What we know:
The complex is a heterodimer of chains A (about 375) and B (about 260).
Chain A: E1 2-7, H1 29-49, E2 53-56, H2 70-77, E3 85-88, H3 98-111, E4 116-120, H4 127-130, H5 138-154, E5 159-162, E6 167-171, E7 185-188, H6 192-200, E8 204-207, H7 212-228, E9 238-246, H8 250-258, H9 274-282, H10 290-294, H11 305-313, E10 317-320, H12 322-336, E11 340-345, H13 351-370
Parallel strand pairs in A: 1-2, 1-11, 2-3, 3-4, 4-7, 7-8, 8-9, 9-10, 9-11
Antiparallel strand pairs in A: 5-6
Helix pairs in contact in A: 1-13, 3-5, 6-7, 12-13
Chain B: E1 10-16, E2 19-26, E3 31-35, H1 45-50, E4 55-59, H2 76-89, E5 95-100, H3 102-113, E6 118-124, H4 139-142, H5 149-152, H6 158-172, H7 178-184, E7 191-196, H8 207-213, E8 217-222, H9 229-232, H10 234-247
Parallel strand pairs in B: 3-4, 3-5, 5-6, 6-7, 7-8
Antiparallel strand pairs in B: 1-2, 2-4
Helix pairs in contact in B: 2-3
Amino acid sequence: xxxxxxxxxxxxxxxxxxxxxxxxxxxxxxxxxxxxxxxxxxxxxxxxxxxxxxxxxxxxxxxxxxxxxxxxxxxxxxxxxxxxxxxxxxxxxxxxxxxxxxxxxxxxxxxxxxxxxxxxxxxxxxxxxxxxxxxxxxxxxxxxxxxxxxxxxxxxxxxxxxxxxxxxxxxxxxxxxxxxxxxxxxxxxxxxxxxxxxxxxxxxxxxxxxxxxxxxxxxxxxxxxxxxxxxxxxxxxxxxxxxxxxxxxxxxxxxxxxxxxxxxxxxxxxxxxxxxxxxxxxxxxxxxxxxxxxxxxxxxxxxxxxxxxxxxxxxxxxxxxxxxxxxxxxxxxxxxxxxxxxxxxxxxxxxxxxxxxxxxxxxxxxxxxxx
Amino acid sequence: xxxxxxxxxxxxxxxxxxxxxxxxxxxxxxxxxxxxxxxxxxxxxxxxxxxxxxxxxxxxxxxxxxxxxxxxxxxxxxxxxxxxxxxxxxxxxxxxxxxxxxxxxxxxxxxxxxxxxxxxxxxxxxxxxxxxxxxxxxxxxxxxxxxxxxxxxxxxxxxxxxxxxxxxxxxxxxxxxxxxxxxxxxxxxxxxxxxxxxxxxxxxxxxxxxxxxxxxxxxxxxxxxxxxxxxxxxxxxxxxxxxxxxxxxxxxxxxxxxxxxx
Lengths: 371, 262
């Protein structure tokens, strides 16, 4: 199995709760700079400790992530992270210019010597406000953009594109992706529609903001659809994202997580603005099984023992001493068959977080990679 | 009720080169000569839309449809010469050529035979240079949505299909024809080549070959269309074709506005 360290570059300071877009009333330049510096330092640590990948992602207009353009951070990391792959999971493809996305990934692939992993996501519902895109067209835009990006990466002659949502008269990007034919592509695959599309197009699948049982069902759907399309996904075709915190002992790990931090966890980005979330849901963004997809992001609090143990039980959080965490990882592998765990640090706990990354890298990662 | 595609087109014949050649015509203005694919003359909404701004003449090549079996055209060059005689017989002095699949090779051969009166050439899913020598042709591969009414409209009778298939196979020749491709390198005409991203008969990966051979060639991929782009995505196809016919290489530069409010 492989491990990737995901630091969302969460703003590490006090912020308003239950609102999106988030106003900057108490914004601190120092807190933002410190959040970014911590993230880069933790990515560098992960690289030195042997993590297989590191992960960056895109969110807008809030403290959840100070990387509205993750490719810019990936560009900086290309000069810091010397060995690990850099996974961009991902650009919110339907709200962006697909040719620009293809160009940026090609640049990064060159800058990293071919270490880019290309996640293509539809984003959280609120992202459709960001650049004023109708969420009812999200899936149509996404599917077309993905086909276009693949062509942009591989077509050797200048070509135009007469699409449904995109129109270009002539495209011929420089530089070209270093990996041939192009960097590996992943997409979010929690809904049946996404799993079927990924299987038909031989694209890897990522699960985030979900739980193990639901991800396992989605992965089974993906494998069935892949079989119909004439191929068998490898474990590495499935990424599972979850929180993690390792300490010397199980009790210590849970105590670490309960310690107060500057970041409150009352709301998450998908539901911080209920009117936006409802409008996007009504626009058909979630697809056929609306209720299940809509409720994916609930149950994310981890302030009490009960909440933390609940999240561990649902496969949403790896927490404990190294042996315990390794057992939790094996259980996820046996149930889901994911080949890559995207280990998320959303909340910083100072030295405890740094120690957690070190412990994971030295005591858990080698055993996990041998699985 | 919505009229069937081509309802506004007349249906006539003209004597040329010893053949009686059927053609259908609509619209006024600059002439666009359309050459059909191996399945025969079949007007689509693409022809209707293009005829709003120009004179569209869609020929039925001798040996297709209900015309007698064509034993005389031994090669595509023979057929091209015949079609050029027909155009001259109609008194058309300047025109653009638009060929689909089989008609793509015919259009190129006509331009090679008679370059002067041709302003530009549009090739839709052309079969002139092929990377797929043995395509599986039928409604399931011609159309992105074989279940659609358009894909199921007016099926070709089996005896007509067999006649057309034999003729188009003979005239198309080999998938790659070095001598023909060499002649194309000297064809100094603006050419627009369009392929559907879902085309399995002439896959879009073959598009690049046209650009490598033709000196003034623009490639266009039409998303989510199969081989019959004209039936699958007529609005997307006609927008770019009309713009290219009007502006040739200048069509790369947009002219419409993004202004939201004045």
